[in-house]
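Recap from last week: sequence in, structure out.
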Amino acid sequence: MKVLEKEDIKCLFPRRDENSHKGNFGYVGIMGGCIEYSGAVKLANLSSSSLVSGCGVVRLIIPKEIEVSVMPYLLEQTLFPIESKNGHMLFDKNIINKALEKLKALAIGIGWGESIDNEKILKYILETKDIPIVIDADGLNTLAKMDKNILNKTNCKVILTPHLKEFSRISGYSLEEIENNKEKLATDFAKNYNVILLLKGHTTIITDGEETYLVKRGCPGMATAGSGDVLSGILLGILGYNKPNVLTIAGGAYLAGLAGELAEKNLNDISMRASDTISKIPEAIDEIRS
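Predicted structure tokens:
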């Protein structure tokens, strides 16, 4: 178990060749949104943080019924609407295959809501794909209703990013049990289900069951709506051009925390918004590289 320092993750942010093009840094996808939680700004923040973190292209995969509400918030991102009913995505394996074409990594669950089709979509992706997949928010709630043994059968590299309550739902441990033994329970869960687990907290624990990093970056100003979405976006962006291993995920958590600290220094712990963290990602990358 190691406390992560910026020297450990310089390798994740190499200088880019002059002949680089967007394809060198990965197409990544964000699947989420529903009519109740259209989350236009959240989805835009998530995708923006991915781009600022260095991936080549971000594809937003959303229910068709919220397309109009999301579009005004997008600039550089691309959009892939999926047929929907009552504001929720409908499962169609041919459409899912098309939505995931060329993707180097996928984040799933932000503002997704609850739907039986969500379970079908997540199950299909886990059973048939072999890409890194960051599962967060309603993606975790969807996974909690499924047979978690699917995690041991998938070819995907699964990254779970729960806070304590979400970890309680997917693991079956009580909050008290988790609070009293975070590192061991996180490590055991990651090992048993062959995932990378990022357990959010004052000290964030990132483990694959064999290797564990502690990230002690961040600040009170990050305790605001959308900060978790920004973290998922950063992880996704970095996965566009790095290997899906525990160091990469820990590096994403470090970058998010450092960017948040820089934003709070410019503002204050009360006035910060998640978008302020995004604005400081470039400065945080410079600091890690220096």
